């Protein structure tokens, strides 16, 4: 009987030691895990903060000269016309490299002007000026091959103010009564328009439109 009590005492002692050692191990492991996690968190935060500061610093640094040097703007202030053309007056030429065609431009879009060549819509700015310069022509005379001209082709206009090279960026086909063709533009633009379809018999119901941006000028 005495021997059995002694055995239980040893077993309880062993169990207590086991629980104590296990608790110490769990505590130190948790502490280590927590400490490791906290260290990684702080390190990551510091790294992120450092990265953010470097990015902010780079953004605040002045850009390289090649990045800040803007291309010269072509607008009304640098395009000079000594006088404005009069109705019916020949005011320049339109050269279309794609067609190897040189066409005379007359100020106005009445039949008198369109019978002689390309007409310049009097309500629009002159070629080379900032805004929308609009040219029109008959599909069965000066612009019979205009459908061959498309995006990235060049249109070169020569007037008393210089030579202006435009690059086509958009081709549109619109209804004959669509007035968006002559709306103002924020940059120097050349809009060339003719009746469409090209082989239509009678009064054509649509318009073929080339929208081009000014790329260079020579005085």
Low-pLDDT stretches: 24-77
Q: What is the CATH level 1 assignment of the largest domain?
A: Mainly Beta
What oligomeric state do these chains adopt? single chain
First and last CA, distance: 123 Å
Largest sheet: 8 strands, mixed, barrel
Helix content: 25-40%
The largest sheet has its strands arranged as: 1-2-3-4-7-8-6-5
CATH architecture of the largest domain: Beta Barrel
What's the number of domains?
A: 2
Count of strand segments = 8
Q: Could you please say which CATH topology of the largest domain applies here?
A: Sortase, Chain: A
CATH superfamily of the largest domain: Sortase
Percent range for β-strand residues: 25-35%
Protein structure class? alpha+beta
Please name the defining characteristics of this protein.
single chain, 219 residues, alpha+beta, Sortase, Chain: A, 2 domains, 8-stranded mixed beta barrel, 31% helix, 29% strand, elongated
Structure notes:
The protein is an alpha+beta fold and 219 residues long. The chain folds into 2 domains: 2-65; 90-218, Sortase, Chain: A, CATH 2.40.260. Helix content is 31%, strand content 29%. The chain has 3 helices and 8 strands. The protein has helices at residues 2-60, 65-68, 111-114, and strands spanning 90-96, 101-107, 118-120, 132-136, 154-159, 162-175, 189-196, 206-218. It has an 8-stranded mixed barrel. The radius of gyration is 40 Å and the shape is elongated. The model is unreliable at 24-77 (pLDDT under 50).
